[in-house]
Design a protein that fits this description.
By secondary structure, the protein is mainly beta. The chain has a domain at about 1-25 and about 60-90: Nuclear Transport Factor 2, Chain: A (Roll). The chain is built from one helix and six strands. Strands 2-3-4-5 form a four-stranded antiparallel beta sheet, with no helix packed on it. It has a two-stranded parallel sheet with strand order 1-6. Strand 4 (about 65-70) and strand 5 form a beta hairpin. It is elongated.
Length: about 90
């Protein structure tokens, strides 16, 4: 789905609707010391066999998350489109 790269959104800092630049939000790499990672390491160590979590069916589409930056003051906030889509594409 094609989405415009610039939209008019409400800016909390400016307290009015201003033009925002959209950038696709990407998640960072998972933490090495998180509890789930440590638990997985313990289960897979030794001769205990392969540790598998309960299989759940994941949805194929996601709601795209963007990072909106105000062109006036430069404040950033999340901008989520409440529709599921396969490939969001920013159009200039």
């Amino acid at each position: 789905m094609k989405i415009p790269a610039k939209t008019k959104e409400y800016c909390k800092k400016c307290k009015r609707h201003t033009e925002h630049k959209l950038k696709e939000f990407k998640t960072r790499s998972p933490r090495k010391q998180s509890k789930g990672t440590r638990r997985h390491e313990v289960h897979t160590a030794g001769y205990g066999g392969k540790y598998q979590a309960i299989a759940t069916v994941k949805k194929k589409n996601k709601r795209p998350t963007f990072l909106a930056e105000c062109t006036v003051c430069g404040t950033k906030h999340y901008f989520v489109i409440p529709k599921r889509m396969k490939k969001p594409e920013l159009v200039k």
